[in-house]
Structures are given as structure tokens and as C-alpha cells.
Design brief:
Layout: H1 16-24, H2 35-41, H3 64-69, H4 72-75, E1 79-86, H5 99-102, E2 107-112, H6 123-137, E3 144-147, H7 156-167, E4 171-176, H8 182-195, E5 220-222, E6 231-233, H9 243-246, H10 249-254, E7 261-266, E8 283-287, E9 291-298, E10 302-309, E11 314-318, H11 325-356, H12 362-368, H13 374-388, E12 443-451, E13 454-458, E14 463-469, E15 484-491, E16 497-500, H14 510-531
Parallel strand pairs: 1-2, 1-4, 2-3, 4-6
Antiparallel strand pairs: 5-6, 7-10, 8-9, 8-11, 9-15, 10-14, 12-15, 13-14, 13-16
Helix pairs in contact: 7-8, 11-13
Amino acid sequence: MRLQTDHPSVSGFVPLDAYETKRRHRQLDGAMLCARCSDLSHGLMVNAVAGQGGARMEAGLIAPSELRDQLAVVRTKKALVVKIVDATDFHGCFLNRVRDVVGANPIVLVLTKVDLLPAGTDLDALRDWVTKEVVLERKLTLARVVCVSSRRGTGMREAVGAMFAERRGRDVYVLGSANVGKSTFIRAALKAMREQGNFGVPGKRLPTASAMPGTTLGIIPLRAFEGKGAMYDTPGVFLHHRMNSILGGDDIKRFKLGASLATFECAPRVEGEAMDRASFAGLTILWGPLLRIDVRRASEAVGLTFHGPAGLRVAVVPTESLPDPSAAARRSDARRDAARAAKKLEAEKRSAEETEETEETEEEEEGARGTPSPSALAAVAEWEAARRDSPAAAAPYGSGSGAARAAKDDGDSGYDSCDGDSDSEVDGDSGSSSSDACFFHQRLVRSVSVDGAADVSVSGLNGWVRVSSVRGRDGEGSSSPGGFFEANVWGPRGLEVFVRDPMPVGTGKARAKRAGRRAGTAETRRRTVSDE
């Protein structure tokens, strides 16, 4: 983005006095950050893309299509493409139609953020799994597959070696979905090049990296190679079906999306009950306020392991104790349709007034605007009243808190606000009360049916649920893939959920702890049965 001094709300803005100072000292070329980049580099979540978190197109925001159109140049050049894929969101960020963007150019696939995976992950097994998913399942030819951690430097020497071996004097374009770690990878790759003796690569004023999707808004050339050729950082492709595209910046930070994954083995036990139930059938698992999983059928051998952001806590409640989510969806649709009808009526009246060249006052125009129907508003009020008494309203997440910011559903966003009691306690971390609780599970995203072992991956959440056969009547683990699991997954409007073969990751620390508790629970159950 070009620097400008006229519009503070538009990307590229710098104060006039600061601009003039840099201009006098001839430091404008790559030596000055705009206000937005400066805020992002200091941890602020500043949005610049329309659609992110439900943001509507307005002055200062860029349409996702504008970012994607900038990538059209890649197809017309002879270049090496480094495709970045987030290991914690493989299916959600993959870009299945990448050939439409890069043409016949060779692709080196870099699986980044492997340091966020559970401890004990075998990177060789992970690489084989990625090759099967991409080459065999998607029929996409790859030059190489490399697993890296840009922050820790793991695998960066191999990644740099792959680029030098495959580029053959060509430019290198680093591309991928928004917020998969492209800029962070470039910074780590340049550091690895300097460590290998290539001191000509830039070490300062590198692309800004942040947790906010849409940080990079233009193609940035970097002289990373001696002689001919350059490395290019590119804007991320905005995918509307990802959770981190649906949420706003504050919620991404609150729920710790993109941070290290927490592993939690879920037991079929409702809070307050002394023993595990025989299976998950008839139970609902609430994954923070973002996801609701209603288990319809499940064998006794099925176990669920949650790998996801540490800012989301898992809670188990009886399905019958929660409001009907389909009714909630219908009422939310009624509210959305009423809001859209009001806006349409408002637009039609404004158009008619302009055609007739009327001179009505602003007060008269406000009175002429349509409002949602009383029946729709009553339905919404009824649903919110039912939810206040629901166990879901008290389900904690994060570090034991049950609060999130209230978000207003204006008809198009994925938020579903919920008001609680006014005398609720204030959460110490977020500074908001549980009366501001906000729940996002208002749409049936997918009906899942698993026979055996599989991962239920949530797009953009940087997490998944492992369905496997780890529980038995005797409490001992089983290595067989037997067992069935059927559930309805509810989430924000537009979200996608994928069912895939299990990703080979480490077990982490939670599995051993939970295994001991399961064995103890099974022993207690056997003693109870024998006593009876």
C-alpha cells in the first residue's frame, strides 16, 4: 500500500509531519510504517478487509476480491510458488483451486505452525499424511513437502534448501489463505539465509506479521537472492467459511485462535454427576460459545479428544436441557429477514424520493423507514429468554470465565447475542460480565457420521475433534477402529466443518491424565454393579 497523509481511516496513512520528516531525510523507501502496520506490529487487531468479522464495505476497507486479483500476475510468470498451509487448519485453509491462481508453476508446499501441534508429533509421519491428502486425494502435483515452525526455526533450513533447489533462477511467490503465516515464514526464511552466509538479504523493514487476518494488503518484493530473482510476499486469500474470518479481531484474540493447541479428552460425564455415562448419546458438547455438538448416536467404545485453542473450554450437558437449536435458527432467520426487509424498504423510499425530487426533512425520512415486524421481535425475545435459563448460558470457556462481548446481529453477521441477568459477576480477564455472553452456535453446519476413527475439523478454528475407539466397558483403551458416532454440529452462519482421516499428531499431556481417570471411573462402575 502506498503511503498517504489525507485519510486517517484508509490503509497507508501517516501523519503529515512524520511524512515530511522522513521525506527530508530520504527515508521513505521501505523505512516508514503506516499507522495501521505500526498498530498491528504492537499487537492491536486492526481490520482492513471488508467481510472480516462481518465488517461491511466502507471507506478504508478493501474488498477480498481486490486482494485476490493481485495474485493474477503469478499465473503469467515463470516462478516458483511456495504454498503455505496451516498445520492446525489444513483442510480449512488449503485453497483447493490453487492451480487457477498459479497456473503450471511448480509448487513447494510448506506446512507451517507445526510447533503448535501436540507434543510428540512425528513430522515424517505428518509429511506422509500431507502427501496422501494432497497428491492422492486432491491430485495436485507438488515439487516438495516441508514441515516447519517459522517461530522456532524448525525445518527452515530444509525449506530454504527446497526453494534454492527448485527455483532455478526464477522469482519465488509465497501465497496462501489469510492468516496462515506467510509473512512470518518469509521473515524466518530470510533469517535462515543470513545464517547460511547470504548477508545480502534484508534484515530490517520486513513484512509485518500479526494475528489479524488481512495484514498484508499488497505484493511486497524482497531481494532475497543474489543476482536474478526476488521473493514476493502476497496478500492472503480471504475465505469466508473460516472461523477466523467470521470472528472479529477482538474475539480472535480472546479465544486465542492461532496459539498453541490444548488437548482435552472429553468424558461422557455431565458436570455435577459422579460417574461417566455409558456413551455420549443424548449429550451435547459445548466448545466454548462457538460450537455446539449434539450427539445423536454413539457406541460405548467411542472417545472424543479435543485439540483446539486454549481459550475455549469444553462443557458437557444433556441435550434435552438446551433449547432447540433449529428453532433458534428459524428465529434468527426471522430477525435477519426483518432487518433486510427494513433496509430494502428504506432504500426503495429513498430512491422514490430522489426521483420525485421531494424536499422532505430528515425527521420525516426517519419516520418513513420500515421496522421489523412485532412477531419477529417477539420470537427473538422468546428465544433469548429461554436461553438465559439454559445451561449453555453458564458454560465457561477460556480461563474459567463465561463472558464474551455481546455482538449485535444486523442481519448478515455470524453473531447471535444473548443477554443475561444484570447482577452477574464481572470476569476478571476480559472485564465484561456474563450478561454480555455471546453464543455463536445458531446454524446447523453439518451432520457428522463416523464409523471408525476420524477427525472432525472446524475451518479456521485451528482445532479439531478426534473421534476414536479409546473407551470400553472395562475402561481400557482399544487400538481397534471400531465404533460409530453420529452428531449434529452447530456453529456460526457460513462456517464449514470437514471429516478427514486422523492427522498423525502426538498425544500431548492430557491423554495420560485422562486415561488414569477413565480407569478409575470404570473400576468404580464395576464395584457399584457388584454391590447391587
